[in-house]
Fold these 2 entries.
Entry 1:
Amino acid sequence: MDPYGCDLEVDSVVAMSEAFEPVSILSETECWNLLSSASLGRLVTSVDGVPDIFPVNFVVQHRTVLLRTAEGTKLVSTAINNDVLFEADDHNVAEGWSVIVKGTARSLRTADEIEEAERAQLLPWTATLKQHFVRIRPLSVTGRRFSFGSEPDREFTAV
């Protein structure tokens, strides 16, 4: 017991079990903070029931996902069906995380929209001309954090 009447052994076991949860749900604020720390994600589109996935570099701007693209499949598929998924993740030796944004994608067209997007300083990674900005407005944002470790012992029962 400590001077305040708390059982230190029990408190430390509770703290350890909370600290070592293998999967935890992230708050929306945590999701946006993690997305803001990443620069590579995956855009998932679907045209005529056929899904497609594209690696894209991106930035978070005003709690939206902003990406640039050239003419082609990504731009056309977001125009045909603007319901998209966006996923980004990262990891280190101890843990990882994944955030999924379900939302609507829209190609930016007005001078004001493009000027605002250009302030994000999102530059293409490849030496290609990517003149089109696409903004994903979220309908939902969910995420999980994964603490890495060994698989727990399995309990076997006789059948």
Note: The CA atoms of residues 117 and 133 lie 7 Å apart.
Entry 2:
Amino acid sequence: MRTERRGMMGVEREMRSEEVFSPRSSVLSPELLQRVRWRCRRGLLELDIIFGRFIDTHYAELSDAERQIFDEFLDMPDNPLWDMISGRQIAESDAQVALLEKIKSV
């Protein structure tokens, strides 16, 4: 359990980890989706559009391993990431290739 400061008034509340994502459920909390959307904001408009659509359509269906790979993608600089998505650069693993195919499908 952790305390999280939220809102303009600095209201504190306790937030349990199961509130964010429960492995027993594919339902993601709005807070988690908002954090992921924020991380998807990029310097390239093309990435913003693709990632926004991907979050809307497929993110909730990803396994934990796929979410980890997606986080690794978000840690990459924009140009190499765009090169992977557009096919100009080869992905490092089969798991990355599979997730890139899902991303490209939107």
Note: The mean pLDDT is 79.
